[in-house]
Amino acid sequence: MTEISSEEIPKSFIDFGIESGLLTEDMATFPELKTWALYQFYDLENDSSAFGLEDQTCRMIPETGFKFLLGKEKLEGKGRMYLYLDLTKFTPQPRARFKSRKLSIFINGKPKKEIFIHKKSNFKNPVEIPIESSEFEESRIVVELLPSKNDRGRFWGIWDAFLVEDRLKER
């Protein structure tokens, strides 16, 4: 599991891009993922521009999961807030051999949502997760993304994560 430092000052958004110290398999660009997807007979959805960040680079989620920190210091955030996760999304073409997959999302160690991909159904991006004010610890949350135990390799990735006060209107 990728660990986070409690010393970090959390932001209300993260644009997962190129970071020093990561393994090459920890990151991927849209062209790299698109090439892989073509060989698997999948279509790949673009990095969403919903919140103005679209760099076409994602953080791949290892089999052991991935954790990151988000904060609401610069947001009013007295009531419900919304976490949006822009995940890599593959849609199988008719001739693809496709295995159903699941990604579990935890907030501060508690299960919050599960995302499923099947041959004939898929999730909507960005994934919306309501967060109550009582779920914040010292104005921050730890988000953990955990693939199902039978997943091998790095199928899942995350382009961006946003914590906002108002729901995204275009769904």
Note the main attributes of this structure:
single chain; 171 residues; mainly beta; 6-stranded antiparallel β-sheet; 4-stranded antiparallel β-sheet; 1 helix
Structure report:
- The structure is a single chain.
- The protein is mainly β and 171 residues long.
- The protein contains one helix and twelve strands.
- The strands form three sheets. Strands 1, 2, 4, 6, 10 and 12 form a six-stranded antiparallel β-sheet that branches.
- A hairpin with a 2-residue loop joins strand 8 and strand 9.
How are the SSEs ordered, and which strands pair?
Layout: E1 13-15, E2 27-29, H1 30-40, E3 42-44, E4 57-60, E5 66-71, E6 81-87, E7 90-92, E8 101-107, E9 110-117, E10 127-131, E11 140-147, E12 157-164
Q: Which secondary-structure class do the elements indicate?
A: mainly beta
**Approximate shape:** globular
Global mean pLDDT = 81
**Helix/strand order, N-terminal first:** EEHEEEEEEEEEE
- C-alpha termini separation: 31 Å
Could you name the ranges where pLDDT drops below 50 across 5 or more consecutive residues?
Answer: 1-10
| Rg, Å, rounded | 16 Å
Helix fraction bin: under 10%
Q: How many helical stretches?
A: 1
Give the amount of beta strand, in percent.
35-45%
- Find the count of extended strands (DSSP E, 2+ residues): 12
Largest sheet: 6 strands, antiparallel
